[in-house]
Amino acid sequence: MAILNHKTMKSIRLTINRQEKIILVKDIIYAQVKDKLCSIYLGDHAPYRLFLSIASLKAMLPSDGFLQISRSYLISLNHLQDVDSDSVILLDGTRLPYSHRQKAQILHIFQNHLSKQVQKQEHSLWKINIFNEFRCFDHSPFPFAIIEAVYDVYRNRTDYYFRYANEALQSMLHTPLHLLLDASFFSVIPEADLTWRQIFSQCASMGGSMDTYVTSSIDDRLLRVVSYQPHFGFCASLILEAERDCKPL
After folding, report:
1. Which of 74, 34, 42 has its CA nearest to residue 58?
2. How far apart are CA 249 and CA 247, in angstroms?
3. Are 158 and 111 in contact (CB under 8 A)?
4. pTM to 2 decimals?
5. Collapsing DSSP states into helix, strand and coil, what is residue 93?
6. Cross-strand pairs, 84
C-alpha cells in the first residue's frame, strides 16, 4: 500500500514488510521495477523493496521532478547529470539504460528542468556582478575558480565553463586569465581526471559542499579540492596542495 502526502508533496508513505515507512521525495535517486518488485534507491541508504508498479510510484511523485526513462526505471531529475548514446548518467556515476525511442523527450525534459531551476534561483542577477562577488579571491595564494555547468542540447552533454578564476589559478594552469574565462574546463585541461566532472555536477546541481582529492594531470601533484555551490548551476572550488599520505583511504 502506498499513500501520497498530497499536502506537502515532500514525502511519501510506503508499507514495506508490514511497516510504514516515510520517504522524503528529495532523497529518492531512482527506482527500478523488475519482476513486479520495485526497488527505490536513496543514496547511502539500502534500497526499499516492495511490490509496486512503476506507474503507481510515478503517480505518487511530483510530475515535474521525476522522469520515466524506460519500462523499468524512474529517475529523479535533480540527480540526472548527463545523457549519452546508451545511458542516462546520475550524479553518483550510476548509469541506467533508457528507451531510445524516448531520447528526444528525455533531453527536452532535462533541458526544461535545468532552465526552470536556473530561473528559480535568478542567478543571472548575480552573474553580472560575479567579479565583484569573488574579487576577494583575486590575490589569494590558493587557486580558486567558479565553474558553471551548462547542458548543451545539441551535443547531448553537460560542459563546465570557467566564469571566474584568480591569479593563482592562472599561474597553476599557465594560462592567461582572458583565455580561461568562458572557456570549457576540459578544453583547457583535456587530460583532467573525470573526478572533476563529478565535483562540478554534484555541487552545481545538488548544493552542499565536497572535500575531494584529485591528482593533477599537469604535474601529478595530489590536490585537495574544496567545493561548494554559491548559486544554483555553479560550483566554487578552492584548490590546495596535499601530501600523498594525507589522502583518505
Report:
1. 74
2. 7
3. no
4. 0.57
5. coil
6. none
